Amino acid sequence: MSAVTTADPPASAAAGARRRRRRGRWNPPLISGLVLFGLIVACALCAPLLTSQDPIKQNLAQAFLAPGAPGHPLGTDSFGRDVLARMLYGARTDLQVGVLAVVSPFLIGSLIGLVAGWFGGWIDAVIGRVVDVVIAFPFLVLVIALVFAIGPGTTSIYVAITLVGWVAYCRIVRGQMLVAKEQEYAMAARASGLPTWRILLRHLLPNVVLQAVIFSMSDIVLTLLAIVTLGFLGLGVPPPTPDWGTMIQEGQQFILTKWYMSTIPGLAVVITGLALALIADGIVERANQ
Fold it and tell me: In this predicted structure, which of 12-21, 99-108, 228-237, 268-277 has the lowest mean pLDDT?
């Protein structure tokens, strides 16, 4: 007759708790994303230390230098401008606009979703119809149309992305609110006679905003793509300010012979998107632990 060995329940539970704590401390996607994004931001901030070239200075005598040329590690473009310098200073422009352009939609959409989910009724119905109208159009198409109507420039980008981007945060927070307001802590706060604004901002918002924060990481990627697309179409950051989208647009006609002019800024967009996607995955993994 064979004996079956079973682990001691308390010891097994303690070992499982230790494993969960170790997994909580070591979150590869989050750490990888933060390190990669931190390197990108560091390169943008330290641009003057990484290159001595002026990103907007033209030198037609040195146009189309290949990567590895003396003084130009990534070569030069059709105007003789250093590609590395334009890459680094372009990162400053695109990251600043990309991150700041997400802040307003995040705040506005979260507050509107909070109100819609809490009050319901005709308020929720009106907000829902507005959201349906905006979301019926593709994000990028609507942003391009608005920037075209308002006029190119950074301010136009902020306005267009805010007018379009808030709906996603509104839907996310509203959905979370419909569940959260039925929880015991929410009903207890309501029964205690606390003001509505305090219940919403102090008790409910911290519990429903996590999904919106996670989505904001992906939204920054979408916003960067929108900025690059606008720059490619000539509707983005006005020249001569360096911008990844403008660099891609300027290099497209030389893509077969001077591939680096478009490929290098394109890779920068991909790597930045990968870093933000890893951060979002890491936050999700952390939240589910």
Answer: 12-21
Q: Which amino acid is at 11?
A: A
For residues 174 and 31, give the distance between their C-alpha atoms in angstroms, rounded to a whole number. Answer: 30
pLDDT per residue as tens digits for the range 229-253: 888 888 888 888 898 988 998 888 8
CB contact at 8 A, 209 and 227? no
Q: What six digits make up the tokens of 68?
A: 């590895």
Q: Which residues contact 47 (CB under 8 A, 6 or more apart)?
A: 85, 88, 89, 91, 92
pTM for this model (two decimals): 0.79
Report yes or no: 232 and 245 within 8 Å, Cβ to Cβ: yes
Q: Hey, which CATH number is domain 28-53+81-287, 3.40.50.2300, 3.90.1150.10, 3.40.50.10490, 1.10.3720.10?
A: 1.10.3720.10
Q: What is the DSSP string of the chain?
A: -PPPP---HHHHHHHHHHHHHHHHH--HHHHHHHHHHHHHHHHHHTHHHH--S-TT---GGGTTPPTTBTTBTT-B-TTS-BHHHHHHHHHHHHHHHHHHHHHHHHHHHHHHHHHHHHH-HHHHHHHHHHHHHHHTS-HHHHHHHHHHHH-SSHHHHHHHHHHHHHHHHHHHHHHHHHHHTTSHHHHHHHHTT--HHHIIIIIIHHHHSHHHHHHHHHHHHHHHHHHHHHHHTT-SSPTTS--HHHHHHHHGGGTTTSTHHHHHHHHHHHHHHHHHHHHHHHHHHHHT-
Region 156-183 average pLDDT: 92
Contacts of residue 274, Cβ cutoff 8 Å, sequence gap at least 6? 36
CA distance 222 to 165: 10
